[in-house]
């Protein structure tokens, strides 16, 4: 049985104040943008709340109005990163259905370009993502997005082949998500050339896996 976040963890990591007005939303965006810039600049070192406040042009007190600690800021960044994937996959569902293998291969390439950019631009957030995956109290956060991503991959495959059974599409969606994520994490820990080679390998695996189910010429 999957565990939900316990009360203590929620209190420790949830933003203190939800932005209700445009001005408040802009302040939160400034905090998160500053934190993301600092994580990219500092690599493996986690930025302090003071450093985030200074980069955002705010007082530390202003930051604490919205986030109880730096971990909550990084967790919110991770949430935003996870929430960007459904939008990217949905783009492939919203375009006309590919009618042959070459057209589908081009659609897969576009998806890989978009998703690779999300990994490369946010490489410094990966330790946060891995920490979420390995923490029983935090894992439900990622599980929520994983379900949505799997469902969208399945919907994309059924968009390409409307006759594809839902259970098969869902099973393929799980493999597409899990293999793609794990392999990219491995690539990010090496170097850019290795990342690109692994990307090409994952793309080839995806095509070999799903194409036989899509009834394409």
From TrEMBL:
Keywords: DNA-binding. Residues 1-17 have a biased composition (Basic and acidic residues). Residues 1-25 are annotated as: Disordered. It comes from the Bacteria. The keyword Ribosomal protein does not apply. Residues 48-67 bind DNA. Pfam families: TetR_N. Residues 25-85 form the HTH tetR-type domain. This is TetR/AcrR family transcriptional regulator. It comes from Mesorhizobium humile.
């Amino acid at each position: 049985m999957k565990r939900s976040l316990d009360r203590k963890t929620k209190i420790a990591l949830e933003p203190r104040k939800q932005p209700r007005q445009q001005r408040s939303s802009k302040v939160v965006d400034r905090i998160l943008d500053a934190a993301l810039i600092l994580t990219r600049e500092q690599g493996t070192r986690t930025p302090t709340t003071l450093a985030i406040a200074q980069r955002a042009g705010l007082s530390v007190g202003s930051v604490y109005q919205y986030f109880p600690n730096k971990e909550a800021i990084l967790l919110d960044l991770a949430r935003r990163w996870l929430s960007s994937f459904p939008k990217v996959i949905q783009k492939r569902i919203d375009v006309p259905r590919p009618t042959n293998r070459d057209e589908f291969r081009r659609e897969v390439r576009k998806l890989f370009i978009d998703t690779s950019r999300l990994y490369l631009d946010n490489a410094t957030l990966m330790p946060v993502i891995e920490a979420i995956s390995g923490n029983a109290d935090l894992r439900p956060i990622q599980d929520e997005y994983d379900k949505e991503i799997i469902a969208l991959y399945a919907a994309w495959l059924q968009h390409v082949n409307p006759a594809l059974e839902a259970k098969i599409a869902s099973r393929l969606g799980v493999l597409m998500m899990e293999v793609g994520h794990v392999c990219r994490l491995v690539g990010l820990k090496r170097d850019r050339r290795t990342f690109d080679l692994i990307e090409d390998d994952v793309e080839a695996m995806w095509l070999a896996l799903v194409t036989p189910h899509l009834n394409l010429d």
